[in-house]
Amino acid sequence: MSDTVLPAPAREGRGRRVTTEGAGARLALALAALSFLALFLVLPLVVVFVEAFKGGIGTYLSAFDDPDAQAAIRLTLTVAAIAVPLNLVFGVAAAWAIAKFAFAGKSLLVTLIDLPFSVSPVVSGLVYVLLFGAQGLFGPFLKAHGIEVIFALPGIVLATVFVTFPFVARELIPLMQEQGTADEEAALSLGASGLRTFLTVTLPNIRWGLFYGVLLCNARAMGEFGAVSVVSGHIRGLTNTMPLHVEILYNEYNFIAAFAVASLLALLALVTLAAKSVLEWRYGDALSGRGAH
Amino acid sequence: MTAAAPPLRRLRRPSAIPGFGIAFGYTLAYLGLIVLLPLAALVLKASSIGLSGLWAAAMEPRVLAALRTSFGLSLAAGIVDAVFGLIVAWVLVRYRFPGRKLIDAAVDLPFALPTAVAGIALAALYAPNGWIGRLVEPLGLRIAFTPLGIFIALVFVGLPFAVRTVEPLIAEIDRELEEASATLGATRGQTLRRVLLPPLLPAVLTGFALAFARAVGEYGSVIFVAGNMPYVSEIAPLLIVIKLEEFNYAGATAIATIMLGMSFAALLAINLIQAWSRRRFGHV
Predict the structure, then answer these.
(1) Which of A161, A170, A135 is nearest to A150 (CA)?
(2) Per-domain boundaries in chain A
(3) B192 chain-A contacts, CB cut-off 8 A
(4) DSSP secondary structure string for all residues of A187-250
(5) Which of B120, B248, B284 would you mutate first to test chain A, the one with the most A CBs within 10 A?
(6) How far apart are the CA of B279 and the nearest CA of chain A, in angstroms?
(7) Residue pLDDT, tens place only, B251-284
(8) Which residues of chain A have pLDDT under 50?
(9) Does A28 lie at the interface with B, CB-CB under 8 angstroms?
(10) How does the average pLDDT of chain B come out, rounded?
């Protein structure tokens, strides 16, 4: 069938478009979708900020004078600063091995990398307690050497690394697979070293995908609650991350302070979403690998 | 680049690209240390309890009630997410209205919003003195601190999965299919039901399974609106936390093992749906 034989389909008839629903059905579907989204997305977000500012700006800001709140913010930043680079390096290494080479057992490896996504956060924390807790596998050894993992920073970092494990790898693997190996082979044949090829050819090709993965990884690392809650021990000022501090404040009926700290996390989510959308709109091709050629 | 005669049973095809050894080795070592070793510790602990021990732990009435609450409500939430996810994806892809892009971006909010924040926000909305709770209270309806509150939280966390799995497929639908259907005399309803919906079904099912799997394990956003009453509104992940706080590692491990088994079953189901879809429709 070629286009020259068939007349173009009549699209000009405004009232009789066959590829869409009637006006009534359209309105009903749009209303259903939008009210559902308003109820489930907009309202929860709005309520956080309204509750946080209920007592005015002064009360809002005083929530951050609390040394425990400041310690929680510091701890959350510290944990993310350790966990995100670890998973960034892993993600690049895994994507390099998986996308640039053909080897046996590849799909099994990809499945295993995705595994942490299908494990409940609470279970993610539990497995580390079973390993490093007082009654855990390595518990006696750690105790004998005076090393604290559970109820201390290392445990919180490990649990965070576990739950954010796949983010960067999963963004990069399809992208680098799409880009293939032609660019790298050209650079190598022109005499560039392996490292130089990676830094000057591969890295620029994947930079937006990498940034995207790091963005999502960071948002989850700073916001993780379940896994961290299991391993943290909730020691105020010491092992309390921001989400855990929100819980403590809330359970003490200190609602304004709880929502104030929560509003920072909500702001982080909004910034993440905005950056993610901007990346998708502007660099959509570079993210899906089509723009590299 | 085809090697002249690739030796049989070679585990890796030769390549001019360097760095396989170090990248692959690092990947395996890191994966082993961070993911596989800890999960192995869980399996080890579970095997020391034994199948009969696991069964006994699962049959404990409070555990059974928590598992039933978790799985039942996740199932319901997954279904609601699948249905509304399809409608939302359809409206976002097919209709043009101001703010469409903004709303499309907002669909990912449950991914990005920390679960504890979602939890206290939902509690503030649905508590008896909350924005919505206050409205339904005179009708004798309580949402927060009942299983209904858990259900709402689970719908919230699962929504992006349902929308994002269906959305790309709707965008790819060939309009000529609909035109052909219409020229052959089908009403719009018939076209939707018999031409457009069947190829979307695998994606809807995948979205359901993903939303369900996420809901089963969800903790942070639920515990604030659940009320956490044993036998009534206590979810399985919370019971794991409670057992851990009592230093009952065996009890916690038993529930975790059952949940892990269920999430692997969900993963398997997703893979089967996708394999079936590839055969039947030629796409995932």
Answers:
(1) A135
(2) 62-288
(3) 21
(4) HHHTT--HHHHIIIIIHHHHHHHHHHHHHHHHHHHHH--HHHHHHHTT-TTTT--HHHHHHHHH
(5) B120
(6) 19
(7) 999 999 998 888 788 778 888 888 888 888 776 5
(8) 1-8, 10-15, 291-293
(9) no
(10) 90
pLDDT given for residue B2 in this prediction? 45
Q: pLDDT band for position B189 (50/70/90)?
A: confident
Chain A residue with CA closest to B121: the answer is A44
Let me know: does B149 contact B122? Beta carbons within 8 Å. Answer: yes
pLDDT value of position B73: 96
Taking alpha carbons only, the member of A182, A154, A201, A37 closest to residue B91 is A37
A173 at the B interface (CB within 8 A)?
Answer: no
Domain A62-288 adopts which CATH fold?
A: MetI-like fold (1.10.3720)
Count of positions (residues) in chain B:
284
Residues 6+ positions from B280 with CB-CB distance below 8 Å: B202
Q: Which domains does chain B have, with CATH numbers?
A: 50-281 (1.10.3720.10)
In the chain, the amino acid numbered A74 is R
**Measured between alpha carbons, how far is B215 from B197 in angstroms, rounded to an integer?**
25
CA separation, residue A111 to residues A22, A117, A126, A184, B278 (Å): 44, 10, 21, 26, 18
Burial class (CB in 10 A: 0-12, 13-18, 19+), A257: buried
**Does any CB of chain B come closer than 8 Å to the CB of residue A226?**
yes
- Can you read off the two tokens belonging to residue A89? 């390096």
